[in-house]
Amino acid sequence: MAALLRLIDSFNKWLTILLGIVLAVMSIVIISQVLSRYIFGIPLPWSEELARYLMSYSVFVGAALALRKQQLIAVEFISERLSWKPRRALKVAINVISIILFAILFMKGIEMMGKVGTQLSAGMQIPMSIPYASIPIGAILLTMNAVAVIIELVLAKEAVKEGEAA
C-alpha cells in the first residue's frame, strides 16, 4: 500500500506542474484577450472560451490535489471532539462516501460527454466532449487522491501532532 501511495504522490507532483502550466496559459490568454480587445480593437473570438475550458480542468485538478493534502474546506466540529481512532474511522468513512460520489460524477460526466459529443464549441470549433471530459477526468483524479488519503489514514499509527501536515 505504501508503494501505491508513493506512486500517487509522484503522479500528483506532475499534476501540480501541469496545473501551474494551465494556470499560466489561462492568464496569458485572458491578458491577450483584454489587450487585443481594448488596445487593438480586435477581439479574439476563441480566447474567452479557451480560458473557460482551462478553468474547468484546473478546478478539478486543484480540487484533487487539495483533497490529497486534506486542505479542502471542511466542517470539523464533530471530528475535533473525537479521539484519534474514532476520528480516523470517521475520515475513512467520509472518504469512502466521497469515492461513491466521485463514481456517480464519473458516470454522469461520461453520459454528458456522449450527449454533447457531436456539438462544436462556438469560438474554437472543437467537439464539446473535450471540455466536458474535465468531469470524468476530475472524478478519476479525486478518487485516486481519496484512496491515497484512506491509505495514509490506515497506515498511520498515531495522531499527527498539532500544527504538522497530515
Q: Can you characterise this structure?
A:
Mean pLDDT is 92; it is low at 161-166. The protein has helices at 2-38, 47-68, 84-116, 129-132, 134-155. It has 166 residues and is an all-alpha fold. The chain starts with a helix and ends in an 11-residue tail after the last helix.
**Order of secondary-structure elements:** HHHHH
Helix content: over 70%
Number of domains: 1
Q: Name the average pLDDT.
A: 92
Computed CA radius of gyration, to the nearest angstrom: 20 Å
Major pleated sheet: none
Cα shape: elongated
The tally of strands reads 0
Low-confidence stretches: 161-166
Strand content: under 5%
Q: Indicate the structural class.
A: mainly alpha
- Tally the helices: what do you get? 5
Terminus-to-terminus distance: 17 Å
Family: Belongs to the TRAP transporter small permease family.
Keywords: Cell inner membrane, Cell membrane, Membrane, Transmembrane, Transmembrane helix, Transport
InterPro entries: DctQ, TRAP_DctQ
Membrane topology: Multi-pass membrane protein
Question: Notable features of this structure?
Answer:
single chain, 166 residues, mainly alpha, elongated, disordered C terminus
List the helices and strands and how they pair.
Blueprint: H1 2-38, H2 47-68, H3 84-116, H4 129-132, H5 134-155
Describe the structure in brief:
This protein has helices at residues 2-38, 47-68, 84-116, 129-132, 134-155.
